[in-house]
Specification:
alpha/beta
């Protein structure tokens, strides 16, 4: 099972100091956080994609290419790449280059994006979000798999005799996760192609995530990719830890209360009771995370959000120390215990190359 972190890249004022980092400071802090993730033994770093303030990660492959040169083992991914407003040809090109630069340490998570104004900025209509996703992804898959593509669709200029350059590393495309918070059509899309499904899992109650994952698993089996238990599932999560639970709650409360995404609404206590947000000791994070398996089954990837809401860099790095030293080693052992032998691991480039019968 893979463990890692994902970032949304928000530039938020620290409510305890009144200071917000500059965009340059936030971008460089993200690099430091990713390198720390590798240092403490995590498997995955994923960056979001946003094109509006207060977010800075508008060019994920630029950031991931820089990180590829500064890391050796970390899988570099996204959370998410906008399949709706990006040109699928450019996505195919960018991630093929990134695959070569990183020696295959790359996959990507596709999503529709949740910021309405982005659609017209890139010439698209948010009312067509799901059809755009389906059409763009069909083209993306063909570009990575077919040497010459003739294509015509509703939303993009036709292609005639187009060959992607460079081809994917070892002629094996990056593994794709389809992410959704609430849209069953995305779970259906992931199941149809036998790709991974990533449930964001940070805003909604567990019962909602349970239904989304169950839909994906049953349709994965329906399309003949394996049993429902063998479907490839990832989950998000958000945590804040201190060794004593009361210290974690006291320190995190001002950040929660003022966070753009969930401040000024339900209380911290209400939010932690109704969603998977865990604020407490490492032991509480372990117990809560292990419980996820009770309602989604054995899954392949767990990503945590730890660097948002204006938390200072040093605090984030301390969170990563706790994850690497005290939380993830226990989770690896416990998740492996009782895991059926026929439940696959999260796909890697090496595994996909081996499955395709090619030599890396």
């Amino acid at each position: 099972m893979q463990f890692g972190i994902f970032t949304v890249g928000d530039v938020t004022t620290d409510p305890t100091t009144g200071r917000a980092p500059t965009e340059a400071e936030r971008i460089k802090a993200t690099v430091a956080i990713a390198k720390k993730a590798e240092e403490v033994g995590l498997d995955v770093f994923a960056t979001g994609e946003h094109h509006n303030p207060p977010f800075v990660p508008s060019s994920p492959t630029t950031l991931l290419g820089y990180l590829a040169a500064q890391t050796e083992r970390l899988i570099l991914s996204t959370s998410t790449t906008l399949i709706t407003t990006n040109d699928p040809v450019k996505i195919a090109e960018d991630f093929a280059v990134l695959q070569h630069l990183s020696d295959g340490r790359v996959d990507l998570m596709l999503g529709r994006g949740n910021t309405g104004p982005v659609y017209p900025w890139f010439g698209q209509d948010i009312r067509e979000a799901v059809p755009l996703t389906v059409e763009h992804y069909d083209l993306l898959r063909r570009l990575w798999r077919e040497p010459v593509v003739d294509w015509e669709g509703q939303f993009r200029t036709p292609l005639q005799g187009f060959t992607l350059a460079p081809r994917p590393l070892d002629d094996v495309p990056p593994f794709v996760w389809h992410a959704s918070i609430r849209t069953p059509e995305i779970a259906e899309l992931a199941a149809y192609y036998g790709d991974g499904f990533f449930a964001n899992h940070i805003f909604w109650p567990a019962s909602h995530t349970e239904r989304m994952v169950a839909t994906y698993r049953s349709r994965f089996e329906h399309y003949g990719h394996g049993t429902a238990a063998q479907a490839i599932v990832g989950l998000g999560g958000q945590v804040f830890m201190r060794r004593r639970s009361q210290d974690a709650v006291a320190e995190f409360r001002p950040y929660f209360d003022n966070a753009p995404v969930y401040g000024h609404g339900p209380s911290l206590e209400e939010f932690t009771a109704q969603t998977p947000l865990t604020v407490g000791s490492p032991e509480e994070v372990i117990d809560r995370t292990l419980h996820f398996r009770d309602y989604v089954g054995d899954y392949q990837r767990q990503l945590f959000l730890v660097d948002h809401a204006g938390l200072p860099l040093q605090t984030v790095l301390e969170q990563l120390d706790l994850l690497g030293e005290e939380v993830v080693p226990v989770l690896r052992k416990e998740f492996q215990s009782g895991r059926p032998d026929d439940v696959p691991d999260a796909p890697t480039h090496a595994a996909l190359v081996a499955a395709a019968g090619r030599e890396s």
